[in-house]
Amino acid sequence: MIKKEIQEKILKKAISLKEFGANDLTWEKESAKKLINLLMEDEIGILGGSVYKIDSNKLIPLYDNWYLEPDVKEETKEYYTRSKKKAFEYINNYPVYPDEKIIFSLVFTEDVD
Predict the structure, then answer these.
(1) pLDDT tens digits for 19-43?
(2) What is the CATH number of the domain that holds 12?
(3) In sequence order, what are the residues at sequence separation of 6 or more whose Cβ sits closer than 8 angstroms to the Cβ of residue 33?
(4) Lowest mean pLDDT among 6-15, 44-53, 76-85, 102-111
(5) The pLDDT value given to residue 1
(6) What per-residue string of b and e applies to 84-99 under the rule 16 or more CB within 10 Å gives b?
(7) pTM value?
(8) Domain membership of residue 93 as a residue range
(9) 63 half-sphere exposure, CB direction, 13 A CA radius
(10) What's the total number of domains in the chain?
């Protein structure tokens, strides 16, 4: 169960996909990057994520995503840090044009076993 203070960080700028029939949270590029930076010292990892576009009030999966498995040689805290850096890098490098609404879902984990 994710700690309350971490949940609050996650929910602060989240965009719910319920109106599109999906039970997921997403963030726009800058909000996602800020969230990852806020979570850097927390005991939570990011397994990966997906990219969507909202256009004409429709949710369009872009089939772009990333996933990062833990290395058997690394400690949990090392994986958490590496996973957040990878997520930040992926989102930061993803092209978003001014007239687009691109959103990113993130898959969080507290369990690396």
Answers:
(1) 999 999 999 999 999 999 999 999 9
(2) 3.30.190.30
(3) 88, 91, 92
(4) 6-15
(5) 61
(6) bebbbebbeeeebeee
(7) 0.91
(8) 4-109
(9) 0
(10) 1
